[in-house]
């Protein structure tokens, strides 16, 4: 359902968002989101709209995630409709300290994005959901 050109553009959006995080470039980060973007963060907070998503990310990337890098380990892209795709990523997070003072080391996250094609051919993130991958979960996956 997705063309090679679409898949390449989607991958560019995903890697561009990660690069924007790693360089703390909030303008670049925002450029990968739709205006009506929904974002559910790693602890279940739901931000509605690009303005709130960016407000939260700007705060977090200037505090607990300042200088914390992300690395995309795996990326899966699947077409849903001609102009809609699902992206599932495995991301390694750099070490960081949570607001309650816990040091998080060697965290791996699973990100899910719903990405939609724009009239100008760009693919932007319409929805995102982030989940921590529990280190023991894979050992007890009933599908494996």
Describe the overall structure.
With 144 residues, the chain is an alpha+beta fold. It has a single domain (4-133), classed as Roll (Nuclear Transport Factor 2, Chain: A). Helices cover 26% and strands 40% of the residues. It is built from 3 helices and 8 strands; from the N terminus they run H-H-E-E-H-E-E-E-E-E-E. It has helices at residues 4-23, 26-30, 50-61; strands at 33-40, 46-48, 70-81, 84-93, 96-97, 103-104, 108-117, 123-132. The protein has a 6-stranded mixed sheet with strand order 2-1-8-7-4-3. Strands 5-6 form a two-stranded antiparallel ribbon. A hairpin with a 5-residue loop joins strand 1 and strand 2. The radius of gyration is 15 Å and the shape is globular. It starts with a helix and ends in a 12-residue tail after the last strand. The mean pLDDT is 94.
Keywords:
Nuclear Transport Factor 2, Chain: A, alpha+beta, 144 residues, six-stranded mixed sheet, 3 helices, globular
Describe the structure concisely.
This protein has three helices and eight strands; from the N terminus they run ααββαββββββ.
- Number of domain units: 1
Average pLDDT score: 94
Radius of gyration equals: 15 Å
Second CATH tier, the architecture: Roll
Sheet-strand content, in percent, reads 35-45%
Strand order of the largest sheet: 2-1-8-7-4-3
> What general outline do the C-alpha atoms trace?
globular
Question: How would a crystallographer describe the biggest sheet?
Answer: 6 strands, mixed
CATH fold naming: Nuclear Transport Factor 2, Chain: A
Q: Give the SSE order as H and E letters.
A: HHEEHEEEEEE
Helical content (DSSP H or I, runs of 4+) = 25-40%
Q: Stretches where pLDDT falls below 50 for ≥5 residues?
A: none
Distance between the termini: 28 Å
Number of helices: 3
CATH domain class name: Alpha Beta
The secondary-structure class comes to alpha+beta
Number of strands: 8
């Amino acid at each position: 359902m997705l063309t090679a050109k679409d898949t390449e553009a989607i991958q560019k959006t995903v890697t561009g968002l990660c690069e924007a995080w790693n360089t703390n470039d909030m303008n670049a980060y925002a450029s990968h989101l739709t205006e009506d973007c929904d974002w559910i963060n790693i602890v279940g907070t739901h931000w509605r709209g690009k303005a709130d998503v960016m407000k939260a990310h700007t705060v977090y990337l200037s505090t607990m995630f300042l200088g914390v890098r992300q690395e995309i380990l795996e990326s899966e892209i699947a077409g849903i409709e001609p102009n809609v795709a699902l992206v599932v990523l495995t991301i390694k997070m750099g070490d960081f300290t949570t607001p309650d003072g816990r040091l998080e080391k060697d965290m791996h996250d699973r990100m899910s994005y719903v990405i939609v094609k724009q009239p100008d051919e760009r693919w932007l993130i319409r929805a995102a959901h982030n989940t921590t991958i529990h280190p023991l979960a894979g050992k007890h996956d009933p599908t494996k």
